[in-house]
Design goal:
alpha+beta; TATA-Binding Protein; four-stranded antiparallel beta sheet; two-stranded antiparallel ribbon; 2 helices; 6 strands; DUF1257 domain-containing protein
Length: 144
């Protein structure tokens, strides 16, 4: 006597679940009032010891773990752009620090330019006063 058994597998192969889409990085922009490429580059070198080899008006740098793109906007000021999944408070603070240092360097540049121009015209510096808001008042003697 022979017996036949029918064996059927009870294992079900599950289909893989579709992966949820990966979150996409977004581009965020921080607007500034910085207009001079030369002073922006000097500011970045002073604050972060960064060498910028690009001679283009727009350029990018890496600060900490962020890639910052400095792009001239239509209004003639630099925008700082970065890609991230979320808005970054660190980049916002970094932009404020860069712009604050830029203002100081711009003031120094203008101060030296005014003094040099006055000397060319034969004016003698009579008084120099730094006000509470860090504004500098220069008084020149017209008689030399």
């Amino acid at each position: 006597m022979s017996v036949r058994y029918r064996v059927t597998p009870r294992i079900k192969i599950a289909r893989p679940k579709p992966r949820p889409p990966r979150p996409q990085k977004k581009v965020f922009t921080v607007s500034t009032k910085m207009t001079s490429r030369e002073l922006v580059v000097k500011t970045l070198q002073k604050l972060y010891n960064i060498e910028i080899n690009s001679t283009n008006e727009d350029f990018e740098v890496k600060v900490d773990s962020y890639r910052l793109e400095f792009e001239m906007s239509k209004d003639g000021c630099y925008d700082i752009r970065y890609s991230s999944f979320n808005w970054s408070k660190a980049v916002d603070e970094m932009a404020k620090e860069i712009e604050s240092e830029y203002r100081g360097m711009l003031q120094d540049y203008i101060y030296n330019a005014v003094k040099a121009k006055a000397e060319e015209k034969g004016l003698a510096l009579e008084q120099e006063t730094v006000q509470k808001n860090q504004a500098i008042v220069l008084t020149f003697n017209l008689n030399g």
